[in-house]
Amino acid sequence: MPSRRIDAALEDTMLQRVVSHLKGRFTRCRRCGSEPHHVRHHGRPSSEPVQFGPVAPRHSLECRFGACTGQHTLLAAAEAEWNDKHAQAARRGRKVA
Ligand SMILES: [Zn+2]
């Protein structure tokens, strides 16, 4: 799985990991047709004020052509944003049970 773009975006204070899921877990991107990656963000972005204590990992979905969601504390929230903004319409070509 290509992850070079994400590796290049690594910063000192942030660690990003691509989390593997079964194929077909997420709805494909409506623009490029590829399935998004689940990216887990550890640490804190340097733009945020310093907080003490552990920081919960956040989640985003990104396709390899640049469509991405914001960072959410819950994967389900990231998935909801993805479905709302970037995903292909669910009812075309596939039946939703
Ligand atoms: Zn895309």
Summarize the structure.
The chain is an alpha+beta fold and 97 residues long.
Q: What would you say this structure looks like, in words?
A:
The structure is a single chain. It contains 2 helices and 3 strands. A 3-stranded antiparallel β-sheet has the order 1-2-3. It has one domain (4-85). It has 97 residues and is an alpha+beta fold. Mean pLDDT is 82; it is low at 6-11. Bound molecules: zinc ion. Zinc ion binds at residues 29, 31-32, 34, 63, 65, 67.
Q: In angstroms, what separates the terminal alpha carbons?
A: 30 Å
Order of helices and strands: HEEEH
> Uncertain runs with pLDDT below 50, 5 residues or more?
6-11
Rounded mean pLDDT score? 82
Q: Looking across the biggest beta sheet, what order are the strands in? A: 1-2-3
List the total number of helices: 2
In this entry the ligands are: zinc ion
Count the domains: 1
Task: Specify the overall morphology.
Answer: elongated
Find the structural class using helix and strand composition. alpha+beta
Which characteristics define this entry?
single chain; 97 residues; alpha+beta; 2 helices; binds zinc ion
Summarize the helices and strands and which ones pair or pack:
Layout: H1 4-8, E1 14-19, E2 37-43, E3 58-62, H2 75-85
Antiparallel strand pairs: 1-2, 2-3
The protein binds zinc ion.
